[in-house]
Specification:
The protein has helices at residues 6-15, 32-41, 59-67, 81-88, 106-114, 130-138, 153-159, 170-176, 218-230, 236-243, 249-258, 272-289, and strands spanning 28-29, 49-53, 70-75, 94-98, 119-124, 146-152, 179-187, 192-193, 200-207. It is α/β, with parallel strands linked by helices.
Length: 290
């Protein structure tokens, strides 16, 4: 069964009375080399367990099962569960879970199915829900060895953007705070059925084994990052003043200057280390006044 053949995919869908579900962002790969390359590059070695998100009809799942000792695939679409039984159900190292990945208790699931095995994530993510899934994985408390996802090219470019660039934003800083982003390769829209309107990019996120920058208050750091990009056209001081109304703008400017920056600097010029410094200064100010 050739799961990258458009005619085979159409046959599978029709025999199961299924249609491509736009609500779930279903676009199935029809390029063998892309499938093989993703499977080859989604883990540092072959002794890893793989958590796959959105297996679809099992195209990538099949390649993963051929390479790794344990694969757990999470599929939200109930209609695809019997399809996966037909296409990849004969793999003894595969477990399919019919669930929304955002509702799945990740830490418990990984512990239950992978035991002490190191785990990597591999996924062809729906464009509409890319960011929530990536952040859920990074904030799950699971020590993933690597997270490899295929996402919209524009989003991949944004995640890999350096401070000061047009694409750099709060999601860039939030992800880079938790891991290193590596762009793998681009995937043209024509490699999918149905073809999306934009190209995709495969990226890997290597989570930091320890936080890249330790801070005194993680929630404060999140608030500082969000405030910096809430109003991009404004200076960092003006943007932060909206998020911290209890602090006078002049005092915020003093904190920015004391951190070593110009009082008129914009948030997109700062890296994660810079935001961590500002966060600690605000945390110290809060503690001194309590």
């Amino acid at each position: 069964m050739n799961l990258t053949s458009p005619s085979e995919i159409k046959k599978i869908m029709e025999s199961n009375n299924l249609r491509f579900n736009k609500g779930f962002g279903q676009n199935f790969l029809i390029n063998d080399s892309v499938v093989e390359r993703i499977a080859d590059e989604c883990a540092p070695g072959t002794d890893f367990g793989i958590l796959e998100i959105g297996p679809g009809i099992g195209t990538l799942t099949k390649a993963l099962c051929e390479r790794f000792p344990k694969v757990v695939s999470v599929e939200i679409d109930r209609g695809l569960i019997p399809v996966l039984e037909q296409t990849v159900g004969d793999n003894d190292n595969l477990t399919v879970i019919n669930e929304d990945i955002l509702k799945l208790p990740l830490k418990q699931t990984v512990s239950e199915y992978f035991k002490d095995m190191p785990v990597c994530v591999c996924a062809n993510l729906p464009y509409y829900i890319t960011t929530p899934i990536i952040m859920a994985l990074l904030e799950s408390g699971v020590s993933f060895s690597m997270i490899t996802v295929m996402i919209q090219k524009e989003v991949a470019d944004r995640l890999a953007s350096p401070p000061g660039s047009a694409g750099y934003g709060s999601i860039t800083a939030s992800v880079n705070r938790r891991g290193e982003v590596i762009k793998r390769f681009n995937v043209p829209a024509g490699c999918f059925m149905p073809a999306p309107k934009v190209d995709s990019t495969v990226i890997s996120i290597i989570p930091h084994s320890i936080p890249a920058y330790s801070v005194k208050d993680e929630n404060m750091l999140t608030k500082v990052i969000n405030s910096a990009f809430a109003q991009r056209r404004k200076t960092l001081a003006n943007s932060m003043a909206s998020f911290f109304p209890e602090i006078d703008k002049s005092e915020i400017e003093e904190l920015i200057v004391s951190a070593g920056f110009d009082k008129n600097i914009r948030g997109e010029k700062l890296g994660v280390k810079d935001f961590a410094l500002l966060s600690d200064l605000l945390t110290e100010r809060k503690a001194a006044q309590s």
